[in-house]
Design brief:
Number of strands of chain A: 0
Number of helices of chain B: 14
Oligomer: heterodimer
Low-confidence stretches of chain B: none
Number of domains of chain A: 2
Number of helices of chain A: 11
Largest interface: A-B, 66 and 69 residues
CATH class of the largest domain in chain B: Alpha Beta
Radius of gyration of chain A: 19 Å
CATH superfamily of the largest domain in chain B: FAD/NAD(P)-binding domain
CATH architecture of the largest domain in chain B: 3-Layer(bba) Sandwich
Helix content of chain A: 40-55%
Structural class of chain B: alpha/beta
Distance between the termini of chain A: 45 Å
Chain lengths: 241, 591
């Protein structure tokens, strides 16, 4: 199966993002993908400006970009994950107050407890992400000889299915299921939150479902659009500011 | 160093619905009232304005208006044999923080609880016999009646701009209203909200199944309104951002619209924000309280605020926590079954189905907080025979939407992949075509569901966290199974293209997914100091100048949202203090 999303990402790295290109060398992305790099799925002119990262290191950036492009692939419904900024949303969230554990009770002692007791790790979301990416990549290297971003589409799918169904466990790391929950939530937040937070670029997530975004008043619309398609050209906070 | 301040007549801890009502009423009665609120004061024009308020990530996911668990939280366990661990972030319930409290971010569902709650033990025993109530189910009559509260429900409904349709005015059943409701003196102040498609379809299906649907009464003003105190409300805009958000239109019945501005204009009233109360102070003989200790969160300075009357009006959980931290009353011990503070903590159960109709357009982003239709056929309908089902309590069922925003609400049929092209296609296909039917069900008190102080974990002030021990018992499992069955029967009768059936809630209660901010009990009201922490006027049996007003006085939890009786009890208590206590300070009910 062709991995077009990956090819596009690698093309961008080589063409635009000098720093990330260096990362591909150290993280071991090799020839099967580079062949596809010659066949981008969309014209480079549509490419967003390289975002730069506040939190993610090179290996994490490569992981997150591969992840969001795999989970949100380009098709006639939306551009792919990196083209709508889900990676940017994740980076900014991890770098910000939420990632640093804002509102998280961080006092010990630390015990795993039972699932009904909720999150019990001595890690901020950013620390959890860092540890989880490292552990997932360690698993990928062991199972496939490459980090996540170097895998084929089929292999990436296997890894995510294993993560999401609890079949993967991290040796001496955080519970893989807790990492997956956070990973999944942040991808969805990056796709459907207001673009002011870095993702959902051009309101692509909202366009997908027909969500109108920041509408001030719907009072007249209750009856007017009852059982009728609402003509949603979504508006964001920035559009209204 | 603690600075001792000048004594005031009354100090109010927490300025939400009950603190707002008590502050306004007592200041109007001439008392010097100080309210201490741990959070900030936000205003509609500055903090709830469009477009910034339309931010699901900020308000729903990141909990901007809620209690900060980094500073103070609870520990959680399902039963006394487990080790309780901290609720490290919010999930199952969302106490508000700041002026207005949870009354800022609520949806506005406002109900009148009836004698089926207030006389729960006597009614069930009379009809089904003593053995029908399980031995560990510590339910009891509340010591108050619907008839006593009726004028105060009315007062709250007219204060909070409730939109709805009466079902029973002075015993006469009203078409279009809830035929099972207890008699009311008059209709709601505002007509019901305009129904959305899901509400229309549920109403029709419920009728076809022989049930009695009616529009949900809710504090979303269906048109502009001025309440009896002169507070002005705008008309609800059905913006779809209600629950978890402040209202930019001042259309939500919030205490910071309905009562607090009135109190603020009264020179007898003073508000101190960022003021964290750590303890209620007792007199040397322990028969009175003398005031409260608090910390100014803006500079860490500590104060003692002496007061003639102390009113605990914080979120229900925090009221109980303060009682335990202050050593007022005897802590409850479930093993020995002694003590009372912490007893009868209750929550709510439920079930929900999602129905998909190809070709329909539900526009889930167009809704008010209360644009649902409900049925009470299995709730306050005493003709519904619980005998064959073997549970105490009931459930209501509703169809409609409330704050269905896209990070949290993207319905797809069960079995849909969680990511990739197939996920995207299904998300796009079904988003507009789905509606939900859900139920809320009672949780009856149980000997082993309770609060006490945690032995290990501490808050930012070095005080023990509250420990919550809670799980659903067999009574709730039976009830949830029945609710799921009724929901699925109604859903199937509507012939949806696809149906995610309702499942009964039978696993252990989890602190993770949001369920309901309806935490009740802990300092329950009752008829004597052995069975309750406060009397029917919400006055402490131990210290007669200490009152606590909130859902923490509920002896069990009903199907209905708690704010109706919380608001009514606040006015009831205010009247008792003004008309009786001030004339003759002392216990208003002999112990």
């Amino acid at each position: 199966m062709k991995d077009q999303g990956l090819g596009r990402r690698d093309f961008l790295k080589g063409a635009v993002v000098g720093g990330a290109a260096a990362a591909t060398a150290t993280t071991g992305i090799n020839s099967p993908q580079s062949a596809q790099a010659q066949q981008p799925t969309a014209p480079p002119a549509a490419a967003p400006v390289a975002p730069g990262y506040e939190f993610l290191n090179l290996e994490e950036a490569a992981f997150v970009e591969a992840l969001v492009d795999h989970m949100v692939p380009a098709d006639e419904l939306t551009p792919k994950g990196t083209d709508i900024g889900i990676n940017v949303y994740i980076d900014r969230s991890l770098a910000g107050g939420w990632g640093k554990g804002d509102r998280l009770y961080m006092q010990g002692p630390w015990k795993l407890g039972v699932p009904s007791q909720g999150y019990q790790l001595p890690l901020t979301p950013a620390q959890l992400y860092r540890a989880g990416v490292e552990a997932t990549n360690a698993h990928c290297r062991k199972a496939y000889g490459k980090p996540f971003d170097g895998l084929t589409e089929q292999q990436r799918e296997e890894v995510l299915v294993a993560l999401s169904t609890g079949k993967l466990s991290f040796e001496n790391g955080p519970p893989a299921s807790v990492f997956w929950t956070t990973l999944y939530q942040t991808v969805m937040q990056g796709m459907f939150s207001d673009p002011i937070h870095g993702g959902n670029r051009n309101k692509a997530g909202w366009r997908l479902i027909g969500f109108p975004g920041v509408v001030a008043v719907h009072r007249e619309n209750v009856e007017k659009y009852r059982d009728k398609k609402f003509p949603a050209t979504p508006l964001s906070i920035a559009d209204m500011s | 160093m603690v600075t001792k301040l000048k004594e005031v007549d009354a100090v109010v801890v927490g300025l939400g619905w009950t603190g707002g009502i008590l502050s306004k009423e007592l200041a109007e009665a001439g008392l010097k009232v100080v309210a201490l609120e741990r959070g900030p004061r936000r205003t509609t024009d500055k903090d709830y304005a469009v477009p910034n308020i339309r931010d699901e990530l900020r308000y729903v996911i990141r909990h901007e208006l809620m209690q900060n668990t980094a500073r103070d939280t609870l520990t959680i366990r399902n039963n006394p044999t487990q080790e309780a661990l901290p609720m490290r972030r919010l999930g199952s319930f969302l106490p508000g923080e700041g002026v207005g409290g949870s009354g800022v971010h609520w949806s506005g569902h406002t109900w009148r609880w009836t004698d089926m709650e207030f006389k729960v033990r006597s009614m069930y025993e009379e009809r089904y016999g003593k053995n029908f109530i399980p031995a560990d189910m510590t339910i009891q009559d509340w010591g108050i009646t619907y008839a006593e509260l009726e004028p105060y429900y009315d007062r709250f409904e007219y204060t909070a701009a409730i939109s709805g349709k009466a079902g029973n005015i002075r015993g006469e059943i009203q078409p279009g209203g809830n035929p099972f409701e207890a008699p009311r003196a008059r209709d709601y102040p505002l007509p019901p909200l305009t129904p959305i498609l899901s509400s229309v379809m549920f109403t029709e299906a419920a009728k076809n199944n022989g049930y009695h649907p009616f529009p949900r009464p809710s504090a979303n003003a269906s048109r502009a309104y001025t309440n009896p105190d002169g507070a002005k409300f705008g008309a609800c805009q059905y913006c779809g951002y209600c629950q978890r958000f402040g209202c930019e239109a001042n259309a939500k019945g919030s205490p910071d619209v309905a009562v607090i501005p009135i109190a603020m204009r009264n020179p007898n009233f003073e508000l101190r924000t960022h003021s964290w109360v750590t303890k209620v102070l007792k007199d040397s003989d322990g028969k009175r309280v003398t005031g409260v200790a608090y910390t100014n969160l803006l500079n860490g300075e500590e104060f003692e605020q002496p007061a003639g009357i102390v009113l605990l009006c914080a979120y229900a959980i925090n009221n109980v926590h303060l009682m335990l931290l202050s050593g007022v009353g005897q802590p409850y011990d479930p093993a020995a079954q002694t003590g009372i503070i912490g007893k009868n903590y209750c929550y709510q159960t439920g079930a929900a189905a999602t129905l998909f109709f190809e070709g329909r357009h539900f526009n889930p982003f167009i809704s008010a907080g209360g644009s649902n239709a409900s049925i009470d056929d299995f709730n306050i309908n005493w003709n519904f025979d619980r005998g064959p089902h073997g549970y105490v309590g009931g459930f209501n069922i509703a169809g409609g939407f409330n704050t269905a925003l896209p990070i949290g609400y993207r319905p797809v049929p069960r079995g849909t992949p969680q990511w990739g092209k197939a996920w995207k296609a299904a998300t796009a296909k079904w988003y507009q075509t789905a509606m939900t039917i859900n139920s809320s069900g009672t949780v009856m008190a149980n000997r082993y569901n309770y609060y006490d102080l945690d032995p290990t974990y501490r808050n930012a002030f070095g005080q023990p966290l509250m420990r919550m021990t809670f799980d659903y018992k067999e009574n709730e499992h039976k009830l949830s199974r029945h609710a799921a069955q009724v929901i699925n029967d109604i859903a199937k009768s509507m012939n949806p293209t696809r149906l995610n059936e309702a499942n009964a809630r039978t696993g252990p209660w989890s602190v993770v997914p949001y369920q309901s901010t309806h935490n009740t009990g802990g300092t329950i009201m009752g008829t004597n100091p052995i069975n309750s922490a406060v009397n029917k006027y919400l006055q402490s049996w131990d210290c007669h100048n200490l009152f606590t007003i909130g859902a923490n006085v509920f002896a069990h939890n009903a199907t209905y949202n708690p704010t109706g009786p919380v608001g009514a009890l606040a006015y009831w208590t205010a009247d008792a203090i003004k008309n009786r206590y001030l004339r003759n300070p002392g216990p208003m009910v002999p112990a």
